[in-house]
């Protein structure tokens, strides 16, 4: 019957009656399905504590965000806001959709990281000229930098991203980048998501060697019996220890700045005797040697 009807309709031509044409009305704009028009998240983004991103739509609906195995839904009116706490930690693509539409937005390699980095070891509490403060640090996702605040100075060691991903990293800061002095230093380790770990340590930075001079006896003096050796040591940051030597052999240590030692001349053969003094400060810096020659009678 359907085929016959088609044949008759085709043969009817202009003599057939057709119902009048009725113009169909366009669908109500308010009934049109909403779409995602903008995602405030870039490929490679890091989401740390308190981080959030916005999904902008052109209407209302339920926006779904899938990260790894977790699906999270937010009502968009017209925007939906997602927070880092909505997702598990890890690295994955963020797949977004609205109201079960087939259309998907995928943001690749999103890092969700709410765990602070670790300061595994800190070495170099006393720094001299050629010394380095070294921090051994680690993060489960990616490290960013190590900051040091000391004596009014703030130094930053930025870590190369290719070395700072889920591995132990050494951050080094040379002593010559820091002011001299003794104070509490603050070390802050920050990862790429903004998580941070802070530790404090007592730090001594001393690049300046002490000085020392032999006040008595004077050069060329003749000594016998017991005689006194007097030294004067100076250092920019504090106490010093002076090692005294006679003809190359250590005989005693005295404390600066004004050190005195009573020596028995009978311990040495008669004739020329060289007395030498070397000062050492609290950081281990050594002075140049001060020497004086006397004659033992």
Structure description:
This protein has a 5-stranded mixed beta sheet, with no helix packed on it. The chain has 1 helix and 24 strands. The protein is rod-shaped and about 110 Å long. It has 3 domains: 35-114, Immunoglobulin-like; 118-205, Immunoglobulins (Immunoglobulin-like, Sandwich), CATH 2.60.40.10; 211-296, Immunoglobulins (Immunoglobulin-like). The N and C termini lie far apart (147 Å). It has 297 residues and is mostly beta strands.
How are the strands ordered across the major sheet? 2-8-7-4-5
> Which geometry do the CA atoms define?
rod-shaped
What is the H level of CATH, i.e. the homologous superfamily of the largest domain?
Immunoglobulins
The oligomeric status of these chains comes to single chain
Structural class: mainly beta
How many structural domains are formed by the residues? Answer: 3
Broad CATH class of the largest domain: Mainly Beta
Cα-based radius of gyration, to the nearest Å: 41 Å
CATH architecture of the largest domain: Sandwich
Describe the main β-sheet briefly: 5 strands, mixed
Give the termini distance in whole angstroms: 147 Å
Predict the CATH topology of the largest domain. Immunoglobulin-like
Number of strands: 24
Low-confidence stretches: 1-24, 26-30
- What sequence of helices (H) and strands (E) makes up the elements? HEEEEEEEEEEEEEEEEEEEEEEEE
Approximate strand percentage: over 45%
Q: How many alpha or pi helices?
A: 1
Q: What do the pLDDT scores average to?
A: 87
* Helical percentage: under 10%
